Amino acid sequence: MFRIPSASKLAPINLGRVPNHRQQNRFATTGSDLTETSWLATLGGRASVSGITAVVFGATGFLGRYIINKLGRSGSRVVIPYRSDRSYDHLKVMGDLGQIVPVAWDSRHKESILRAMSRCNVVINLVNRDWETRNFSYEDVNVKAPKLIAQCAKESGIERLIHLSPAGTTNYSRSRWSRSKYLGEQTVKEEFPEVTVIKPCPLFGYEDRFLNRVGTMISQWPFFPLVNPYVRIQPTYVDDVASAVVSCLKLPHTAGKTYYLGGDKIYTNMEIAKYVQKETRYAEKKIVILPDDYLWFLHVWGKYWKNRRIEP
Questions:
Q1: Where do the H-state alpha helices sit in the chain?
Q2: pTM of this prediction?
Q3: What is residue 101's three-state secondary structure?
Q4: Are 98 and 5 in contact (CB under 8 A)?
Q5: How far is CA 124 from CA 36, 63, 149, 161, 189, in A?
Q6: Backbone phi and psi for residue 191, each to the nearest 5 degrees, phi listed first
Q7: Rounded Cα distance, 8 and 61, in Å
Q8: DSSP label at 287?
Q9: Distances in Å between the alpha carbon of 25 and those of 8, 38, 74, 272, 287?
Q10: Quick one: which of 55, 77, 195, 261 has the fewest CB in 10 Å?
């Protein structure tokens, strides 16, 4: 019987055929593999063996839990770098015993990143920060950290690197956050040319900060302030993005390419606000359209009151 080793005895991955204790006589190899070497492909399940050992940086965030769940369901071993104690507890149930391995890390310490990658063949980078803090600036999180991860992936001989970056980021944006995400993406491409970059549109799901934030403001504020009411967005379901990330691991021709992911319908900000009003039964709340300078006012006000979560 094949047993998955415990976290304390995590062994290097075996590229040969590994027997599956549920389907010992039902093997199939596939040509769409991580490398030219054929990996074992089984019918799946959390107790199966997919041949993938992935380290997912930023796994404790919104998108991370969906990617971890899909990797765990396919029988992949997942290493979860974490910063806060017990921030990974909700992820440990997404895989079989010993399949989800938490490892402490620091984005500024190269040794901790190399340690997290030491027994992996896949790296997925989801690290993101929407606001600056006293310890971490946009450049620290969105530029320097991805660059260091890409450098370590190259040194460790990682076969596949997938980098997530939002759609619409440019180097000439008024937003410092958007510029930092763009620069981070470019540095990753320079350090690891075979990287697969996935750029989704705004994500929505049960725990999102998109529709939930709009719903909170509509339900608690006396009116709903809306800037740029006719700007069009293409919301994407978070589970679809997670499926795309896992699918890229099985398709070798996706290496070195950039993919933009969008939903099946385009909305304006006004349509989104009215939709949330209808679903939350707050249709009587008034929507007040504000000029663009209102965002800069909130940004300056937030800095003054030590609230750096507001970035235009």
A1: 62-73, 110-117, 138-139, 145-155, 176-191, 211-220, 238-250, 269-280, 293-304
A2: 0.80
A3: strand
A4: yes
A5: 20, 11, 10, 6, 14
A6: -80, -35
A7: 25
A8: E
A9: 30, 17, 18, 52, 62
A10: 261
